[in-house]
Amino acid sequence: MTIEQREKWGDALTYLAAIVIAAFFLTPLAWLLSLSLRARQEVFLGASRFIPKRPTLDNFAQILSDPTFLLYLWNGLKLSALGGLGCLLVAAPAAYAFSRFWFSGKSALMMAILAFQMISPLVILVPLYRYMSALGLINSHFGVTMVYIAVSVPMCVWLVKGAIDNIPKSLEEAAAIDGCSRFGTFWRITLPLAAPGLASAFILILILNWSQFLIPFLLLNKDAQLPISVAIFNFSGTSNASTTQVLAAACLVAVVPAIVAFLLLQRMIVGALTAGAVKG
Amino acid sequence: MQTTQAATMAVSRRVAGPSLGRRLEANPFTWLVPVAVMLGIFYLYPIFDVFRLGLTNASLVGTGEQYTLATLRAMLENPALGGILWTTFVFTFGSVVGQQLFGLAIALIVMRGERRKLKGMVALRTIVLIAWVIPGIANGLIWQMLFSEAPFGAINSVLRLMHISPVAWLSDPHNAMLSAVISNVWRGTAFSMIVFYAALKAIDPTLYEAASVDGASGTQKLRFITLPQLRAAILVNSILVTIQTLNTFDAIISLTGGGPGRATEVLSLFTFNTVFRNYDLAGGSVLSVLMLVISLVLALGYASFLPRREVSE
User: Fold this and answer.
1) Which residues of B touch A31 (CB under 8 A)?
2) Which of B32, B127, B285 sits opposite A25 (nearest CB)?
3) Please, what is the average pLDDT of chain B?
4) B307 part of contact set with chain A, CB < 8 Å
5) CATH code matching the domain that covers B83-305, chosen among 1.20.120.10, 1.10.940.10, 1.10.3720.10, 3.30.420.10
6) Where are the domains of chain B?
7) Which of A253, A268, B149, B283 is most deeply buried (CB count within 10 A of its CB)?
8) Mean of per-residue pLDDT scores for chain A
9) Are residues B292 and A119, on separate chains, in Cβ contact within 8 Å?
């Protein structure tokens, strides 16, 4: 067999493997879509109706016309966005210091900040629950947002530092010569220049916050305050075989925003993820 | 605390000169105050308190706890704990091995496809990554619809179409663990894949050229170039994935709820149940400390594998 022939066989095998992998990763989502488009009778027909005979949007109409469900979506978006914004506000000054100052212990401090990422939110929520209820921060979006910020701050510092590192220092130096204070330079020059990087960090944290479950699950008890992740979990507890198609539709609605945000920013997210990767 | 002290000391050293504002902003620690406050309130203090509460008899609802070693002893002598730790180990080990092997295989396939300029490799990478942004809760619910023994369960209804008897994916204790691992691998593989992908891209291509000149086969290149070059990535990845898997909570509670029986009750779920179902705050704190210690040991291992960087950048 010549080398070229062998490469051709290799290509065929590569495609075969790629198709198997793609099928494994797409099937669960395809099944979810299939169930969500069925009427109740077709749900009981299982895989034989993978492509529903009479597809219907009734399930989506049912959940999207429910004002409570829309409220869950809104709560999810609100908490994720406030958490993301707050996180940027807290992390940006630190990221600036790590990027523009030199001081001893800098890399150790950065590693220490990253180490917090390894701690499960459950560990801190065990004692926090009691304080927060003493402070009246249970059942409050403010309390939940603060915990969101704390949980994502370590990663945010690293992401924003990377963004600031990419900005040339010369503009800041020019501003300093013109008499701008350091904070003024940071606020008026550095942050606007870092806007694309800040936006990327914001979107990534938005996606992660959208998935948050444990924090709102523990800290929020009132139905009207719940974000979508907790709401679908509660819904799954009350749903039964005859409402599976509605649960599937609800799951899909909860999942799609994260997928869309990811697809729009895939290049940036992959870049951010691989930036910190080890070079063997 | 330390940060503010250091800041005050640094400020007091330069007494005369520019205004206080200018002096504050010239000190890097001033800029770190917001992060220090957030991490102090929401991480350091709670961690300190978890250690303290573990030595009390605190309950989630009551007040006026007393210091005692009884909770610690009771928790360590709890006959369930051994089983829980074993379950946690099986779940974590299965997930880590599965994600690493699968992630490496996909990264190698994507790399090969890119080298041969095959179409669809970005699409493949994207499809794998989509699973990664699925919220953990949704992950559990979606896989429940696949594993279900009801008529709408995808896998069993396919098996029935093929006249194979359905499998009790979630109601049989042995299968339930396998199902939990599969669903976790589905979501977690993307992370391993992307790390391996980045590491593969960083391998010096001349190594492969030299090997080709020497007549090395594809398997030999994988065995003697790729895998040794990926050593650091594999180690670091294993530790990171292990920590992520240990902290997994939402994907399990929505898939099996820890059952059937206690077949899939991992340490994080056990901690949650102890505190928020049994209101045993002290017992849960002991378990939290256990989780912390395991993570800490793994994190130290991780730090020791990181490439040494120059201090000044």
Assistant:
1) 142, 145-146, 154
2) B127
3) 83
4) yes
5) 1.10.3720.10
6) 2-53, 83-305
7) B283
8) 85
9) yes
> What does CATH list as the number for A65-275?
1.10.3720.10
In angstroms, the Cα distances linking B45 to A127, B51, B242 are: 9, 10, 25
Q: Which residues contact B60 (CB under 8 A, 6 or more apart)?
A: A129, A130, B275, B276, B279, B280, B281
Residue whose pair of structure tokens reads 């009691």 in the numeric block: A130
Pick the more confident residue, B65 or A192.
A192
CB contacts of A258 in chain B (<8 Å) are 133-135
Measure the CA–CA gap between A190 and A95, rounded to whole angstroms. 11
Interface test with A, best of B145, B183, B253 (most A CBs within 10 A): B145
Spell B40-53 as b/e; 16+ CB within 10 A means b: bbbbeebbebbeeb
**pLDDT, position B306:** 62
Buried b (16+ CB within 10 A) or exposed e, A203-221: bbbbbbbbbbbbbbbbbbe
pLDDT in tens, B170-206: 888 888 899 999 999 999 998 899 888 888 888 888 8
When mean pLDDT is compared across A45-54, B107-116, B259-268, the lowest value belongs to A45-54
A113, A157 contact by CB (below 8 A)? yes
From the list A147, A195, A209, the residue with the least C-alpha distance to A167 is A195
* Contact across the interface for B311 and A24, Cβ inside 8 Å: no
Closest residue in B to A19 (Cα–Cα): B124
- B7 at interface of A, judged by CB pairs closer than 8 A: no
User: Cβ atoms within 10 A of the Cβ of B160, count?
Assistant: 16
DSSP state of B148: -
DSSP for B186-244, written as a single string: HHHHHHHHHHHHHHHHTS-HHHHHHHHHTT--HHHHIIIIIHHHTHHHHHHHHHHHHHH
CB A212 within 8 A of CB B136: no
Please give the interface size between A and B, counted as residue pairs whose CB atoms are below 8 Å apart: 291
CA of B113 to nearest chain A CA: how many angstroms apart? 7
Is the pLDDT assigned to residue A20 strictly greater than 90? yes
Statement: residue B266 has pLDDT above 50: yes
Residues of B with CB below 8 A from A280's CB?
199, 202-203, 229-233
* pLDDT tens digits, A52-99: 777 888 888 888 888 888 999 999 999 999 999 999 999 999 999 998
What pLDDT, on the 0 to 100 scale, is given for residue B307? 57
